[in-house]
UniProtKB/TrEMBL annotation, chains A, B:
One of its GO terms (biological process) is carbohydrate metabolic process. Residues 589-791 form the Xylulose 5-phosphate/Fructose 6-phosphate phosphoketolase C-terminal domain. The gene is xpkA. This is Probable phosphoketolase. Belongs to the XFP family. SUPFAM superfamilies: Thiamin diphosphate-binding fold (THDP-binding) (SSF52518). Residues 300-309 have a biased composition (Basic and acidic residues). CDD domains: TPP_PK. Its EC number is 4.1.2.-. It comes from Methylophaga muralis. It comes from the Bacteria. InterPro entries: Phosphoketolase, THDP-binding, Transketo_C/PFOR_II, Xul5P/Fru6P_PKetolase, Xul5P/Fru6P_PKetolase_C, Xul5P/Fru6P_PKetolase_CS, Xul5P/Fru6P_PKetolase_N, Xul5P/Fru6P_PKetolase_ThDP_BS.
Length: 793, 793
């Protein structure tokens, strides 16, 4: 194990050192100004209470560190002509990224009204955390950002996601020591086992030991350096320490360390690209230890502030207090604004010269506005992968396996473009996408041994047993203008509920920002779903992610439950072409009846919802009963129930409706996909009973349809949170989603049926369920007539 | 850095070595039997296809390793009279824990029909992953378990949670190398910075490097040992390696290593307890590297199986295939069952003697059935903390700060019992529970420096910036019979959505298991909520956890939204007394109007929902309009709207309803708290407009009430996913939850109002909103009349 510090190196001559320090002061000045000032941005007049915002909001603590890093990265970029973006894990340091992009000019180019003069400065300050202005966090509004950082933990996954397949890119990623305590961040250090120096870019993690969170110290700031060093060596990095509080010394140290790290990266890439070195390299990382609220007031109201948790947000929240205005004045004057900005309020030219130019500026790098770089995927015709369905239900197929064949060829067609990857927490094959591995391997830079299956340093299937990593990598990959699909066990996708939230919020805001170009949608395949968890059981049974998703803005979320392979193909194609959505696709992997030939599937998916006439006997007349279904298992059970009803009550007119696009159910006022009220009434009638078999929690269907005319006659069957390791059909039975319970409920709601008919059917159902229970308790599998059941059209 | 292996030590003499090996074989035999056999449990007859289950389900891969560890822990327990429980991170190894608790006798004591004879063996085998039987994972049904492990990542947090305040307990925690890749697990190694050897127990982590997940290798199995060693040194442990595949050598090595680890633990505890050593110790951990599917078939169908991913589930899934029955037969015979079990099928006495006795058996340890040990908290009278409310709205108060005072004294009263802790991702003070720190500190075993705030090695407030850790620790603490409360920012509680799921599922199953005694409820305070995220903004605004929670079984979830401090006190008291629930409490921390004096608060909370007569003017008659509210900000806005309505239309009869217990809204058929239909109609009328102001997503209210008579007249206002950093009142405005929008919607639905009155009100609203917008854009804060608004009863 080695680690080095660079105390003896002095790479900066006095002139550049002075200028860099001044640039840093300028960034700090602008940061403090954003938090506090309403007016008098250059302090040309004596500071008064009236110049200060009435509500002081924001986070100072991490900001000077973020500024310090930015000025040093600028130097590295200029010196080496680097293609670099900056990920600010401590998103609370919003003022820093705004300040720096303003100083380098990219902010004013993006927002011309925030001009490079005194008036622009005033607007810059005022807008921060101000109604109608910009948020206090690094956000979509911030040029150069692909990472919000409001919810902590995902900086490094985003960084690696951005670096994959971007060989020239260097992603500088600041990780806060608070964030470093989160689970997602703690495992994301291992991303280096999935980064190939030959054709991926580099990530330079900078762990910023600020020392404190909101109130408590941080774990990593309070373990000895030998543990820290060992930890990051163990994670596979060479850690370099930059520690101190004297700015001039720290500038030299940081510059020397950054030089070393960039050299190491160059060597690693050179070895891989020119000399065929294929071992996993030991990448550099930097541990920067500096005081929280560095350069801020040392003491406020007799309490130590700089270097303590009291610097976390606004060091002096209450400016009415005696002496606080003067503290702020001294603090801001300590940066000597008159040396930084000319009379007009523009950054002095010799300082402005420190920033990179054009797209090399981190606030203007196109990778941070990935839509600019986005190329459409080359897609084969999904119809070519159709399962032959001569008549509905006559063949069986594994829907996700068929999807895997399509994805294999999508992968193949885009191998050269290097802009498509699949992500999964080790469930790629379990979810039946194994054919993809015929054209690309599983990404793996770790040791390989005989017996390993389809590992490859160049693989494009990314599997790590961390849903957080899969989601974070994919987000980073999409946000920098590429494409992907995330396959996950349905139950465990809840692990990234909160990450989905943040991404959906990001997309929602981007829709309101013209300069943010649309990016590829975030696509989920949820398989190994609640109804087929044969190896696992109750812990693996949870269809609630859909409920979670539909709370987000309708304009960014889509949910599809294709009932078979051909509809899944059609939906998949659609998702891969769509932009700025989160698409959730739920589909089973087990052999199941196939209902629609490709032509019908395309038509059905285009409509999103429709009558299955071949399964209905209402012949276009008003039906007596509507049997609706959404999801593969509910569809099968519904059709089986319809068959039984046809048998017992042939004269009963039953209409079968299948839903692929869940959002069709909602009113058009609530979701752009929502079916018009008349069309809905035409389908579901205004007054006939509807038995609705749904894949997930029944409440969701009520919630989506509560405004619909016939809602009072809607009876939904779905997952009632009853589960265990049992047979597939028994899972349906214990939740009342099976054909018998569906039929029973239909009969219960058909008030015109003669009572002897009702009794006959009820008796039949009781017998069948008893037979089922007896058989499975004895044989451990479903009755042959259930296993072999076929629709017989 | 040091690490040691113990190659040279041979602590086991031949006799004990042979016996331990035999015991291990017995456990492996029983494990294989569970996965495969339907009959012929002792292989007394030649094995035939008919003896084999028709559906083969389960996970073999991790099982022999779990068995190996169990037999060695048994030896350690007996030798040192240890009080030990076993947490099986690889929950997929269900057969191992069932096998071992069966061998030690605790299983048959718990389930007498699974007797210690051939008939019992047959039932033991058959029930596994069989309908009506036991799940394939370690589960609530498994004696000795507090950890399901279906969803991976929480083993070590659970282990530490169990160890806190249990000085005599040793929690052996097996961490799978798949699980080790998850975020939650990766950060949970740092739990050692929060464990005090003086009065907490010990955790012995055993990282089991099996090598593979479902299909891919694991990260930690494919980094060199020097990185592994450094990583765990960096995490603060001394790692000991136990590596190999030769069972006899491995037994010696494991025994020697376990001896060393137990000695080290004893020394650490002795130093802290007897010699006043207060430094954070370096705890031992074991890295066990053994083949996946160890002792299983070397090869199946020409493919290497033992030691590869093909052993993950059932090595031969298809027993119809040529030769598979014979492979199974050879495999099972390789354990030589005739040497292990006597003729009756009972484990031979000399082997049974290896197991600990009574409660020392890990399957019978009362800590793993925490309800057995649970003591009620000593609670002060919450009424003593009442905020004085002479008339509604006359005083302001910070609800969660008042709650903090109550919790301070709860803490105080139970300091000696050491059975109450608070958990928070560094948000204890931010959520205003700081008074608790007057009686106990923040738990901290890391370095302390001047300027730190209320850190203490003996602290009972646990803060780490990881919601996963807070949740995992708390679960472990509760499951071993103690009490706690988790305070979290509302938006970020989604980080543990999936952990909540698993805990709720655990509780649901426990309700069906008579021997599982009730445990204290898992209590959440969600504060810093969506309506008051002044420092943050959109990323911090998400009230959807409630939606997620109510998908779980009604019998285990409760949701409370007290509108002020006194109601919050009453709810808090109730939560601390309740058992086997998950209680979600949402309350604000900002200074807000106080509505109810303590007597009224208790009455209101007991009812859970009710008319606020002092705010209504229907005087017990049928109202013209119902204004309902749930949550603190919605309550304030509703009351303000009512005031405006009173002013404009004094003759209008308005009824104000406040909801504390959200589940009151649901039908009694769906939730035990649900209001009876008649009572609901009495409150909400059958046909009058209801304007419902709700804290969260409006859809939830529709979903809970869609069956109610007057649902068609229900208009819900809530969070519409519109947010940013803006003023408190503007947050309400942009989501339409403010007094003006509430009033506007009321007027819109009061069809009898004269049109000139309607126009007058609409004009007023437009003016007010314009005034608001103008003011906040200019001043950055709300209009004085909004900020200073007071109910004037």
């Amino acid at each position: 194990m080695t680690s080095e510090t660079s105390h003896t190196l002095q790479p900066l001559d006095q002139d550049i050192l002075d200028k860099m320090h001044a640039y840093w002061r300028a960034a700090n000045y602008l940061s403090v100004g954003q938090i506090y000032l309403y007016d008098n941005p250059l302090l040309k007049q004596p500071l008064q209470a009236s110049h200060i915002k009435p509500r002081l909001l924001g986070h100072w603590g991490t900001t000077p560190g973020l500024n310090f890093i930015y000025v040093h990265l600028n130097r590295a970029i200029k010196q080496r002509d680097l293609n670099m973006i900056y990920i600010a894990g401590p998103g609370h340091g919003g003022p820093a990224l705004v300040a720096n992009t303003y100083l380098e000019g990219s902010y004013s180019e993006t927002y011309p009204e925030i001009s490079e003069d005194e008036a622009g400065l005033k607007r810059l300050f005022k807008q921060f955390s101000f109604p109608g202005g910009v948020p206090s966090h690094v956000a979509p509004e911030t040029p150069g950002s692909i990472h919000e950082g409001g919810e902590l933990g995902y900086a490094l996954s985003h960084a690696y996601g951005a670096a994959f397949d971007n060989p020239d890119l260097v992603v500088a990623c600041v990780v806060g020591d608070g964030e470093a305590e989160t689970g997602a961040l703690a495992t994301s250090w291992h991303s280096n086992k999935f980064l190939n120096p030959e054709h991926d870019g580099a990530v330079l993690p900078i762990l910023h030991l600020n020392g404190y969170k909101i109130a408590s110290p941080t774990v990593l700031a309070r373990i000895p350096n030998d543990e820290l060093e060992a930890l990051f060596y163990g994670y596979g990095y060479t850690p370099y320490f930059v520690e101190g509080d004297d700015p001039k010394q720290m500038h030299q140290l940081m510059a020397a360390t950054l030089d070393k790290a960039m050299e190491q990266i160059r060597h690693i890439q050179n070895d891989a690209r020119e000399h065929g070195v294929h071992l996993r390299p030991r990448w550099p990382m930097i541990i920067l230890r500096s005081p929280k609220g560095w350069t801020g007031p040392e003491e406020v109201d007799g309490k130590k502030t700089e270097g303590t948790f009291r610097s976390h947000q606004v060091p002096m929240g209450d400016m009415d207090k005696e002496g606080h205005v003067e503290i702020l004045n001294k603090w801001m004057q300590s940066y000597r604004p008159e040396e930084l900005f000319d009379d007009s309020g523009k950054l002095k030219a010799e300082l402005a010269a420190l920033a990179p130019e054009g797209d090399r500026r981190m606030g203007a790098n196109p990778h941070a506005n990935g839509g600019q770089l986005l190329q459409d995927l080359a897609l084969p015709d999904f119809r070519d992968y159709a399962v032959e369905v001569k008549k509905p239900g006559a063949t069986k197929g594994e829907a996700t396996r068929v999807m895997g064949k399509f994805l294999r060829d999508v992968m193949q067609k885009n191998l050269d473009a290097k802009n498509f990857r699949l992500f999964s927490p080790d469930e790629n094959n379990s979810n039946r996408w194994q054919d993809v591995l015929d054209v690309t391997g599983r990404t793996w830079m770790g040791e390989m041994i005989p017996g390993d299956d389809k590992l490859s340093k160049d693989g494009r299937v990314m599997e790590m047993l961390s849903e957080h990593q899969c989601q974070g990598w994919l987000e980073g990959y999409l946000l920098t203008g590429r494409h992907g699909f995330f396959s996950c066990y349905e139950a465990f996708i809840h692990i990234i509920d909160s990450m989905f939230n943040q991404h959906a919020k990001w997309l929602k805001i981007c829709n309101q920002i013209p300069w943010r170009k649309p990016i590829a949608s975030l696509n989920y395949l949820l398989s190994s779903h609640v109804w087929r968890q044969d190896h696992n059981g109750f812990s693996h049974q949870d269809p609630g992610f859909i409920d979670h998703v539909v709370n987000k803005k309708a304009e960014v979320v889509r949910v599809y439950l294709p009932p078979d392979a051909n509809t899944l193909l059609s939906v998949t194609d659609h998702c891969l072409r769509s932009r700025n959505y989160v698409n959730v696709v739920v589909a089973g992997k087990q052999a199941s009846p196939q209902w629609l030939d490709m032509e019908s599937a395309v038509k059905h998916c285009t409509a999103g919802i429709g009558v299955w006439e071949w399964a209905s006997n209402d012949n276009g007349q008003t039906p007596d009963l509507v049997m609706a279904c959404c999801g593969d298992v509910p569809t099968m059970e519904t059709l089986a129930a319809v068959k039984l009803l046809n048998m017992f009550v042939p004269e009963l007119k039953v209409r079968v409706i299948n839903v692929v696009d869940l959002m069709k159910l909602q009113s058009p006022s609530e979701h752009p996909h929502g079916l018009e009220e008349d069309a809905f009434d035409d389908l579901f009638t205004q007054d006939k009973p509807i038995i609705f078999a749904y894949h997930g929690y029944p409440m969701l269907i009520h919630r989506l349809t509560y405004r619909r005319t016939n809602h009072k006659n809607l009876h939904v069957h779905g997952f009632k949170e009853e589960g265990t390791t049992t047979t597939p059909f028994d899972m349906a039975v214990i939740n009342g989603l099976d054909r018998f319970h569906l039929m029973e409920n239909a009969v219960k709601n058909l008030h015109e049926l003669p009572s002897d008919k009702v009794s006959e059917i009820e008796l039949f159902i009781q017998q069948k369920l008893a037979e089922h229970h007896e058989y499975i308790r004895e044989h451990g599998q479903d009755l042959p007539e259930i296993r072999d059941w076929q629709w017989n059209g």
